Amino acid sequence: LLLIMNLSTVAVLYLGAFRVDSGEMPIGNLLAFMQYIMQILFAMMTAVLMFVLVPRAVVSGGRIRDVLDTKPSISDPPTPISPPRRGTVEFRDVTFRYPGAEEPVLSSISFEAKPGETTAIVGSTGSGKSTLINLLPRFYDATGGSLLIDGVDVKDMDRTDLWARIGFVPQKAFL
């Protein structure tokens, strides 16, 4: 289409130049004709572009609909427990394996973080620090062991109540 557009511009200017030179056509008519040709060709190019983009948009819309229709694998219990707020976090023999992974990312992790104490999770890249932290708000559920907040397993708590109890400050500021 760009080739046709450019060739038509050259042809209009070439043929129009002879008419303007001989006095058969004023230069304003030549410029107006060239503008009309450009508008027609841009409209055709837009229509062709729509024929290319509409099928892509339909496929993308289907993928978005699939994501929105996906039921979450983590749900709230029918009768959630809301313990008094003390601030204790305890991991009891927690194991976690990503779906389809051969080896667990976390294996038999046990520790207790009490209020007023500083607990540091240190390790190299890929050692499971972020995965360990993502188990707290139930972004994932542990595949083994139990994770307790204030003495209650996080699987027995309402997620809204659970999230209200957690404050998270990442190492990198992200907005």
Spatial gap, N to C terminus: 43 Å
From the spread of the alpha carbons, the general shape counts as rod-shaped
Strand order of the largest sheet: 2-1-3-4
Helix fraction, binned, reads: 40-55%
Number of strands: 4
Helix-strand topology string? HHEEHEEH
Question: Over the alpha carbons, how many angstroms does the gyration radius reach?
Answer: 33 Å
What percentage of amino acids are in beta strands? 5-15%
User: What is the count of DSSP helices, taking H or I runs of 4+ residues?
Assistant: 4
Helix-strand category: alpha+beta
Point out poorly predicted stretches.
Answer: none
Q: On the 0-100 scale, what is the average pLDDT?
A: 88
Largest sheet descriptor: 4 strands, antiparallel
Structural account:
It is built from four helices and four strands, in the order ααββαββα. It has 175 residues and is an alpha+beta fold. A hairpin with a 2-residue loop joins β3 and β4. α1 runs antiparallel to α2 (27-69). The chain starts with a helix and ends in an 11-residue tail after the last helix. The relative contact order is 0.11.
